[in-house]
What does this fold into?
Amino acid sequence: MKKNFTIISNWKMYLDTIEELKFATINYDNFIKLTNSENKIILCPSFLSLNSINQIFKSTDIFIGAQNCSTHLNGNFTGQISVESFNKLGIKYSIIGHSETRREFKESNIDIANKFSRLIDFGISPILCIGEELEEKKAGKTLDVLTKQLDPIFKIMENSYNKLNHLELLIAYEPVWSIGSGIIPDQDYLENIFSWLHKNFSGLRNKIVFTLLYGGSVNAENAKFLKNIKNINGFLIGKSSLDFQEFEKIVKYGI
Ligand code: PGA
It folds into this structure.
């Protein structure tokens, strides 16, 4: 089965900025060869490389996204990066709510909703990450956790339809226990969650363009299984996306 597929490569802090530029330039031609009408690729380098990597892929079909953003517009916020800067640089996507930033910066669901709001104000597509911890999964609370993470977002969406109707919203379901662990959920678990997500997003009063992604230990071996799960229309990939040969296999599977 062929689907339109969006692949987000989250470089996290694996490479230093010089290595990031090298990775992008060495693989430039091959990255471009990977895009076609069915595949969309979004690379998310560190803040320090964002502008340079965006320049490298300017006028190509490779898109660039940030790994996080500030909730604030501008002002005395040492160490933060504004959404307005992304807008001025022509960056069209930003990850928000990644479990690693939720954990490191003690972000609440409201903080993430504020980032969501800030991004859509500037016409930048949010890549919203949601997902449960292992204990929450074991307690059968996954859908409750996802509901709590999504509720403040749905409230914003209800009042911002005019800003959302020309943006693509990307929602990455990333079980925290799967990220970097090599373990992925089984088919029933994924089908249940993705059909729930699909029902929630397609049932919104105001229709929006949305793509549901899976993230957590995606690799060349499990890509086939994951791509065949109904309603998974993209991946958010960390570690495996920094090995170009592996990344290529993941992207190409099913083409
Ligand atoms: P991983 O990371 O592919 O290395 O598990 C995924 C993510 O954190 O987005």
User: Anything to note?
Assistant: The chain has twelve helices and eight strands. The pocket of 2-phosphoglycolic acid is lined by residues 10, 174, 179-180, 215-218, 236-240 (CB under 6 Å). The first helix runs from residue 17 to 26. The CA atoms of residues 32 and 62 lie 7 Å apart.
